[in-house]
């Protein structure tokens, strides 16, 4: 009676599942990334709940337009057990959380959900590669944390890169041990949150293979950069189409994001940039400022080729044929939107992964990086004019955009198909990489290197010893021939060598024992 059983399994492989997306309100861009995931899954027919612990007060948007939203105020989620109960009762098939902290991973396990899917909201974070066992060759993979290095590094850059990587892992371990302690207050047997994360079924990465610096990955890392970015732009309203028609040669848009808006730049920087804008009279400029920034309005009074706006339809503007250059901070979402529309850019990295995203742009030849501390009249003008006047930037941007659009499977398809796969098959244990469970000594074979080192050392000691014996014997010979006087301490020297050898062998034994004991 095998058949009915098989039939049952077939029936269980459902099309729609219950999905939880854990999305703390850390910043607008994180809500947007998570919201795009939630919306794509709703479109695919899943029942999606976006759970938002409110770290920062929610203002205009919660990121998702289609999922059910549950918010929870206050920092101490765990003390608020009553609020978590309805979530536990919903019996989700699978839950998403992002890499920014491992609280989400813990909450998901605490809710009794075993099947976890991780999201890296930037190119693969150091902590993500560390936990999942993704190979991280620091010689050519730049750490994500504030880092000006690309994938070609000289000796000191590699040293700095390694230092940044190890530093971020140490901080990560410290932070996640703290997180684990919080959960252990409520459940003493709670596993370390890093171990839960290591068992994630999949990891969706908010980056694109064509744009990102190439690096080794594992099967469970799936690139979905560009997810939810509208591929077809809406027509502009009257105000913006009027702005886009200005400028003999086209329009340049400057939008530095919400963390450090234009108005927050130092006064000399702003004055320098505005002077450069005045010089580039062939182009019309559009700067996004924050709400009520009278200061900048006063500063720019009298500049003919400039408009200020407090909000702009970014994707629609990027798609406009008269847009020639986008000056941005290099946040990954904005960068994807820009690259997909083939717009050359000048990136002014402000913090976190933005430095590395800038390197991506330079490597692909679709723009230039302008360091935030260097911006002024000269540097801004030269960067903007270089990108505007060198045709290769636009040419490369078109090639990258075409590849991003034409690569096999869209980000939505990848997200939806793999999520469905995880819903149908439960925890994807088969994709777990053993490296995620090894300690550092074994992972890097440090024990074998230590062993080899000692073997070589012993070999040379023996060689040395033999050599000394030969020499002293031949000198004995020489003395016998009366040519050289023998050294009376010669034989004691040999004894010292022997004692040294014994010590060495003992040391070797201890080292071996140590490494064997340190096996997990
Ligand atoms: C991770 O998965 C392994 C089996 O693949 C299991 O033995 C282990 O308990 C899991 N760890 C956690 C913390 O769930
Ligand atoms: C801007 O200029 C107006 C009039 O010239 C002045 O009243 C106002 O205080 C200025 N605002 C700032 C923030 O400088």
Explained architecture:
The structure is a single chain. With 520 residues, this protein is an alpha/beta fold. It has 3 domains: 16-225 and 411-441, Glycogen Phosphorylase B (Rossmann fold), CATH 3.40.50.2000; 238-405, Rossmann fold (3-Layer(aba) Sandwich); 445-517. The chain is built from 19 helices and 13 strands. The strands form 2 sheets. A 7-stranded parallel β-sheet has the order 3-2-1-4-5-6-7, with helices on both faces. Helix 9 (267-279) crosses helix 14 (377-389). The radius of gyration is 30 Å and the shape is globular. The two termini are 43 Å apart. Residues 1-13 and 482-486 have low confidence and may be disordered. One 2-acetamido-2-deoxy-beta-D-glucopyranose is lined by residues 294-295, 298.
Give the tags.
Rossmann fold; 520 residues; transmembrane; signal; disordered N terminus; binds 2-acetamido-2-deoxy-beta-D-glucopyranose; 7-stranded parallel beta sheet; alpha/beta
Summarize this structure briefly:
The chain is α/β, with parallel strands linked by helices and 520 residues long. The protein has three domains: 16-225 and 411-441, Glycogen Phosphorylase B (Rossmann fold, 3-Layer(aba) Sandwich), CATH 3.40.50.2000; 238-405, Rossmann fold, CATH 3.40.50.2000; 445-517.
Please give the count of helices.
19
Low-confidence stretches: 1-13, 482-486
- What is the number of beta strands? 13
Bound molecules: 2-acetamido-2-deoxy-beta-D-glucopyranose
Helix percent reads: 40-55%
CATH class of the largest domain: Alpha Beta
Average the pLDDT over all residues and give the rounded result: 87
Strand order of the largest sheet: 3-2-1-4-5-6-7
- Measured by DSSP, the beta-strand proportion falls in 5-15%
Q: CATH topology of the largest domain, which one?
A: Rossmann fold
- Class of secondary structure makeup: alpha/beta
How would you sum up the major sheet? 7 strands, parallel
What value does the Rg take, in angstroms? Answer: 30 Å
In CATH, the architecture of the largest domain is 3-Layer(aba) Sandwich
User: Span from first to last CA?
Assistant: 43 Å
In total, how many domains does the architecture comprise?
3
CATH superfamily of the largest domain: Glycogen Phosphorylase B
Shape by Cα distribution: globular
Subcellular location: Membrane
Main location: membrane
InterPro entries: UDP-glycosyltransferase, UDP_glucos_trans, UDP_glycos_trans_CS
Enzyme class: transferase
């Amino acid at each position: 009676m095998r058949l009915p059983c098989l039939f049952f399994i077939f029936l269980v492989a459902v099309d729609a599942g219950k999905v939880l997306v854990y999305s703390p309100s850390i910043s607008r861009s994180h809500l947007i990334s998570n919201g795009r995931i939630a919306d794509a899954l709703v479109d695919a027919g899943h029942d999606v709940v976006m759970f938002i612990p409110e770290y920062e007060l929610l203002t205009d948007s919660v990121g998702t337009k289609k999922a059910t939203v549950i918010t929870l105020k206050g920092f101490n989620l765990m003390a608020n057990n009553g609020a978590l109960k309805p979530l536990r009762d919903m019996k989700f098939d699978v839950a998403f959380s992002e890499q920014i902290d491992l609280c989400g991973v813990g909450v998901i396990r605490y809710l009794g959900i075993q099947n976890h899917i991780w999201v890296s909201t930037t190119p693969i974070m150091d902590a993500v590669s560390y936990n999942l066992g993704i190979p991280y060759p620091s010689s050519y993979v730049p750490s994500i944390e504030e880092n000006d290095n690309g994938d070609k590094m000289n000796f000191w850059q590699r040293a700095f890169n390694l230092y940044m990587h190890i530093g971020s892992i140490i901080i990560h371990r410290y932070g996640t041990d703290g997180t684990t302690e919080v959960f252990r207050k409520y459940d003493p047997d709670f596993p370390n949150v890093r171990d839960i994360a290591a068992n994630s079924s999949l990891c969706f990465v908010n980056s694109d293979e064509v744009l990102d610096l190439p690096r080794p990955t594992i099967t469970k890392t799936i690139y979905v950069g560009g997810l939810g970015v509208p591929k077809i732009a809406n027509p502009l309203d009257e105000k913006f189409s009027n702005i886009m028609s200005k400028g003999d040669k086209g329009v340049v848009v400057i939008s530095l994001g919400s963390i450090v808006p234009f108005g927050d730049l130092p006064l000399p920087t702003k004055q320098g940039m505005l002077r450069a804008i005045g010089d580039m009279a062939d182009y019309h400029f559009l700067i996004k400022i924050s709400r009520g920034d009278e200061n900048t309005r006063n500063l720019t009074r009298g500049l003919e080729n400039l408009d200020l706006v407090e909000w702009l339809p970014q994707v629609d503007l990027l798609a406009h044929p008269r847009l020639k250059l986008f000056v941005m901070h290099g946040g990954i979402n904005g960068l994807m939107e820009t690259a997909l529309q083939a717009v050359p850019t000048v990136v002014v990295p402000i913090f976190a992964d933005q430095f590395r995203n800038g390197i991506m742009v330079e490597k692909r030849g679709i723009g230039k990086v302008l360091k935030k501390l260097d911006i002024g009249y000269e540097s801004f003008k030269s960067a903007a004019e270089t990108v505007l006047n060198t045709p290769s930037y636009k040419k490369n941007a078109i090639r990258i955009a075409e590849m991003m659009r034409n690569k096999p499977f869209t980000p939505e398809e990848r997200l939806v198909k793999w999520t469905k796969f995880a819903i149908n098959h439960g925890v994807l244990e088969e994709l777990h990489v053993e490296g995620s469970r090894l300690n550092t000594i074994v992972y890097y074979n440090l024990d074998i290197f230590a062993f080899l080192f000692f073997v070589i050392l012993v070999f040379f000691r023996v060689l040395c010893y033999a050599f000394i014996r030969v020499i002293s014997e031949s000198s004995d010979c020489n003395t016998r021939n009366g040519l050289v006087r023998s050294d009376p301490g010669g034989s004691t020297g040999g004894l010292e060598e022997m004692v040294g050898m014994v010590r060495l062998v003992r040391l070797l034994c201890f080292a071996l024992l140590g490494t064997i004991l340190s096996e997990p």
